[in-house]
Design brief:
With 86 residues, the protein is an alpha+beta fold. Helix content is 42%, strand content 17%.
């Protein structure tokens, strides 16, 4: 969501403990890691915090839309069903 903004020049992230490893290898943090560093670099000295908040809001809207579409699909009962014969 952040990189969809045309005013973003660079966006990167790393795990808190793996910062040096990330800088050396561009590694994704482990899923159990509860810290993450995000760097957002904007064109024209725009606010990276505003960009992050907008991206999080857009992501929240996307998740709500997917959830609503999923619930609608379930209520229409028009999906492939499979019965396991054991």
């Amino acid at each position: 969501m952040i990189m969809k903004n045309p005013k973003v020049e660079f966006c990167g992230y790393s795990g808190y403990r793996h910062l040096l490893f990330y800088l050396a290898r561009r590694s994704v943090p482990h899923p159990s890691e509860n810290h993450i560093n995000i760097r957002i670099q904007m064109y024209d000295n725009l606010s990276s915090l505003d960009c992050l908040l907008t991206a999080l809001s857009n992501l929240d809207d996307l998740c709500l839309s997917i959830g609503e579409a999923y619930k609608t699909s379930l209520t229409q009962d028009e999906y492939e069903k499979w019965d396991e014969k054991s």
